[in-house]
Amino acid sequence: MYGQEHAGTDHRPSVDVRILGPVRLLIDGVPLPVGGPKPRALLAALTVNRRRAVNSQALGDMVWNEQPPDAYQASLQVFVSNIRKALRTAGVDPAAVLRTESAGYRLEIADEDCDLGRFETARRAGTEAADAGRPERAARLFADALAQWSGAALDDLPGLVFAERFAVAMHEERLLVTSARIDADIACGRSAAVVGELVAMTTAHPLREPLWVQLISALYLSGRQADALEACRRVRAVLADELGIDPGPALLELEQRVLRQQPLDTEAIARAERMAKAMTETVTERPRARRGRLRLPDGSIVPIESGGLKIGRMTDNDLVLEDPKVSRYHAQIQTARTGLVIRDLHSANGVYVNDEPIEEAGVLADGDELLIGGTVLRFEAQS
Predict the structure, then answer these.
(1) Where are the alpha helices (DSSP H) in 312-382?
(2) For the chain, where do the domains classified as CATH 1.25.40.10 start and end?
(3) Which residue ranges does the chain devote to CATH 2.60.200.20?
């Protein structure tokens, strides 16, 4: 589809763009020189938006952190020209791959020609297999998806806002697929093989209850009831110390099954743990309502409802902050037994309370100053 036939052969060079790690462009497995950070950022932006035209203004914002110079369009043309020259030298028709549109550029590659596309395709197929009750196939497909990664996404583009946002979102996707693959492995009877991985994951993300459900299940199914109960004790302590809450219903039910030595339904565990929502929202107890509000820099007030408040740049957040330093889904305020708690949703630059970074979550007190990206919010408790 992309290549021009080499003289005397029917060979068509294969294109492979990689952004789940450092940005790379390979032809027949051989890396091509793309250039410095800005040309690589251009290639990454076009890959994320593959088969869609991206206008020059949007590309300028992404490549130059929303502050493009006056001559940015000429610079984009130079970057594109150099990438096309590299493609032509490698035997690929550049006009078929990197196309000029009326207001910008388009990277015309199939999903199988970039690691992001292969990851997404394998993830979807794995989810379908898991939903169809085929855990062995699901485990293989999820493993194929994870094999596309060669580091943190766009890890050679530090400091670029668009790259940081993409990396944060893809980190969450990677974690979800890893969890789904573990579910499938447990359903296939490979519980003992995933214990070590789950120990590392619960250490890295101690407030994510679904990961603890997986660890406790894997330990119990491996015949390690005492270790499973010890994991129950640890997660109780973590949630109490960090958030002042008790475990959610899924953990409580699992703990009772382990205590009573009852069998576990591994397929039911897999279905529950595959839910993305469970990976992004900690189940919290709300026996006593605590109220509060946030005061914005302009003096306006945002009430915190009983269901909580999600903060970020995306329009589906409860509080949308038009701040380039704010991640798409940056933080969430929730009601816990001890009061209102703010949780970092794996933002690019963290959440600060009174100039101190929080680990994953922290309890709020009246007068606390919250730094979300570059925006300072003041928390005001209400009786």
Answers:
(1) none
(2) 117-280
(3) 291-382
What angle, rounded to 10 degrees, do the helices at 56-63 and 72-89 form?
Answer: 90
Q: Distances in Å between the alpha carbon of 110 and those of 15, 22, 247?
A: 9, 20, 44
Is the confidence at residue 179, as pLDDT, over 60?
A: yes
Phi–psi pair at 6, nearest 5 degrees? -75, 150
CB 318 within 8 A of CB 309: yes
Return the closest-CA partner of residue 272 out of 332, 330, 209: 209
pTM: 0.70
Question: In this structure, are strands 356-357 and 331-336 parallel, antiparallel, or unpaired?
Answer: unpaired
59 closest CA partner among 102, 103, 19, 26: 103
Helix/strand/coil (H/E/C) assignment for every residue in 233-274: HHHHHHHHHHHCCCCCHHHHHHHHHHHCCCCCCHHHHHHHHC
Order of strands, sheet of 30-32, starting from the edge strand that comes earlier in the sequence: 15-18, 24-27, 30-32
* CATH homologous superfamily of 117-280: Tetratricopeptide repeat domain (1.25.40.10)
Burial class (CB in 10 A: 0-12, 13-18, 19+), 29: exposed
Q: Where in the chain is the domain with CATH 1.10.10.10?
A: 15-113
| Residue matched to tokens 């382990």 | 258
Alpha helices of the chain — where are they, by DSSP H? 37-48, 56-63, 72-89, 94-97, 115-131, 135-146, 161-187, 191-204, 209-221, 225-243, 249-259, 266-273, 276-280
| Tokens coding 212 | 């603890």
Report pLDDT digits (tens) over 76-130: 999 999 999 999 999 999 999 999 998 899 999 999 999 999 999 999 999 999 9
Q: What is the CATH number of domain 291-382?
A: 2.60.200.20
Query: What region, left, alpha or beta, does residue 357 occupy, with left being phi > 0 and alpha being psi -120 to 50 degrees?
Result: beta
Separation of alpha carbons 25 and 40, rounded Å: 9
CB neighbour burial string for 77-107, b if at least 16 within 10 angstroms, e if fewer: eebbeebbebbeebbbbbeebbbeeeebbbb
Please give the CATH number for the structural domain made up of 15-113: 1.10.10.10
Backbone angles phi, psi at 154, to 5 degrees: 55, 40
